[in-house]
Give the backbone structure.
Amino acid sequence: LPASLGRGCLGRWLLAPRGWALLGTGTGTGSCSCLRWRHQPPLLLRAARQSIGTQAGGLRAEKPGHDSKDVSVQRALNEETLVSAAQRVKEAGRDFTYFIVVLVGIGVTGGLFYVIFKELFSSSSPNKIYGDALEKCRSHPEVISVFGDSIKGYGEATRRGRRQHVSHIEYVKDGLKHMRLKFYIEGTESGKQGTVHVEVKENPETGRFEVRYIFVDIDTYPRRTIVIEDNR
Amino acid sequence: MEEYAREPCPWRIVDDCGGAFTMGAIGGGIFQAIKGFRNSPVGVNHRLRGSLTAIKTRAPQLGGSFAVWGGLFSMIDCSMVRMRGKEDPWNSITSGALTGAILAARNGPVAMVGSAAMGGILLALIEGAGILLTRFASTQFPNGPQLSEDPSQLQPPPFSDYR
């Protein structure tokens, strides 16, 4: 609700002394400066009071009678001391717990987003390497001759039958990171399944992964191997 | 799990639809039981009857909504797998977004965009959690094969027919 108040009028609310005294300034100057809200001043008054001041209880809307203004200020001052320290501590504790819960939620959500972005967009993620290798397989003439035109690729089958996880292993050799992937391809002719093995090596200058070899093991008898790329 | 000799995809739709219905019906059943119990007149018989009525009326509705969501999501997912030819987290995120958009189609284009965003973000979070879990589970078993040399299929390419 404070967001809907608009910056200019909110400044005026904040500058005026708290809560109840706003009644006088609000209705007095509301018509000339905050034209938009002429329709709903009582609602906004209450909303502003509840959002700006944290004084609980006792803030019923009082019509600002000219001679009762002093009285209303006095009475409100007394009411403020009635909101005792214990209640304030309890409210502060509650606000603090909510704040911690919100922080934890944001942290978890942020972590999950980071994981999924890294997986989908970073060039050193197994998924990206799998995508590039699959494209190379699809455009290789020998693979097309064995499997047909449209080649599907998939990874390991998790529960529920979804096959999104590509099995990969990372290891370090001679100080450089290597990664090996294994996924399966299938063509339009049924019964022919192939296993694609990919290895990539990290290039120390650019920091990206470069392909070291790609080959396809075809599931026929006798077993055939098609080497797509060999940069050793 | 190589016991699956059949393609997961068309059967997965039925699987997901039924699974979603069960989740919605059971969850809705528990929720409505408590709600019906509390919103009934005093007396255990009244309350039990009230909660049973609430379950009978509301739980299948919730189950149905969940089933529609799950079935539509799985249908779009399988269609995308068929179209793209590979299985990716992108499929899930796009399917979630399209499902959200289609299910909000009655409320106009702006609502569709908002619902699509929510569906996509929800699915992205679920995918992220899934990836985290798989990575975490795979690091539990640190004894991979020692991979210091290249596989034998590569060695002398002219003899690649041998194994």
